[in-house]
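Predict the 3D structure for this chain.
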Amino acid sequence: MSGKVLVSAVSLILVVGVAIGTVVVVHKQNGDSGQISSHQNAVAQMCQNTDDPKFCQQVLGHVNDTSDPKAFLTAVVEATTNSVIKAFNMSDRLSVDHGNGEKGLKMALDDCKDLLQFAMDSLQSSTDLLRNDIKTVTDQTPDFRNWLSAVISYQQACMDGFDDNNDGEKQVKSQLQEQALDGVGKITGIALDIVADLAKILDKFGLKLDLKPASRRLMEVDSEGYPTWFSASDRKLLQKMHRGHHVKPNVVVAKDGSGNFKTIAEAIASYPKKGANGRYVIFVKAGVYQEYIIVPKNAVNILMYGEGAGKTVITGNKNFVDGVKTMQTATFANTANGFIAKYMSFVNSAGPEKHQAVALRNQGDMSAFFDCAIVGNQDTLYAQTNRQFYKNCDISGTIDFIFGVSPTLIQSSRIILRKPLDNQFNTVTADGTAQKNMPTGIVIQNCDIVPEPALFPLRFQLKSYLGRPWKAYSKTVVMESRIGDVIHPDGWIPWEGSMYLDTLYYAEYNNEGPGANVQGRVKWPGYKGLISKNEALQFTAGQFLQGGPTSNTAVWLKALHVPYDIGLTKP
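Done. Predicted structure below.
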């Protein structure tokens, strides 16, 4: 496996070299003071709103064409790519060096290689975007920011895969972090800062582009409850499924042998090698499927549906206590863009005593889950990276059971708190946003937050909270939801001491129920309390899932087969 990944990485180096190398050159040896001043001024304009302007200027100081802001963007993407390649090569070398060492260390290093390969894929998408004119690049700023944020997510997941309680793993993590991974986070953060400030930068370069406010471009929802910008084929397919009509699948999975395959793994393996023409539809008949599934990244635009949550069930029990890294505990993992699941359950049956045990890990961009149940205890739903949408789902667990580093919107669903161990408390969310300009976070809209029956009589004894900050800029918004008295009056709980309480963003809007009273909430600087309607609009589907409020349209949602609310659900 590592050999194949390394070939892919080398290929990417060549591609990046061709795409970018021609625009990044060294300083001229000679030139008048006016040229130098103009160059310094252009670099300063690009870097002035970054977290580390001095470092940014070092990265961009070699760009020669100071009249073209795209040349600076190209240079920072190249620098980011080179940092990821360095980290990948180092993790590959360490994996070889420790190939006969502890299983946990080898697993963590192998995960790092996979994650850094995904990071390079995201950077390749950024490189491809920069082949277009600056107007196109600006229109796709949300995509650009999403891809760069994904790089940071993968970098973090690599570091989080090492066990700090194991001396050997801690030592290797420190080596990899200091010599490579910290550099990835730093340079990607600079790139994010620049892209987030792009509209202002272009204005300073004298480029006046016709960029209309996103709020004027939000599309309507039709009488069926579907966005008007669904493609005709997607709309027809969704309407059929919504009305209970049969949708003809490409393949059928049935445990009793009445379909094309008996396992879900076989059905996914049947995905055409040259890609599917439109959606590749997999129907999974009722049954309990004890499988561990990874949807590969090349299997894009799969629609997988069952006969109902609780009827079509995929289950496993891998967990951290038994020696499996959190990322690898997932019963079902999706790494492909455009994946959609309907009418199914994803379960990790390891109990709360087994600690981290993921039911569903999702990193596919423009993915959606509709009428599904996602069941576990600690770390149930790992919304790892990229834009994700969940509607009409039951999501249940105990500690940090909705976590990750992605723009994730959960709409019109049931968030079910389960009974933890006697010495534990529940936290619904743990968002991992690490840098201020990452368009990531967890939004819970129009949901019911309730205890399971086993927790109900103990709900005041075993405390439950809306979330805790996993990383420095942790972002979670709960709005237009019904919050039961299972949620402690504090609402939120620290991760450790006062860590991240100044920089996090936690907010609530127009909630109801006994747990929605904010009078007793925490008094942290980062807790925004009840936000205004205008601020809440930033976290609706029409804006949040684009990656930011300056986007063209929420075009990715046109690939989804789910009805949804583009704005607020209440007056």
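The CA atoms of residues 139 and 211 lie 8 Å apart.
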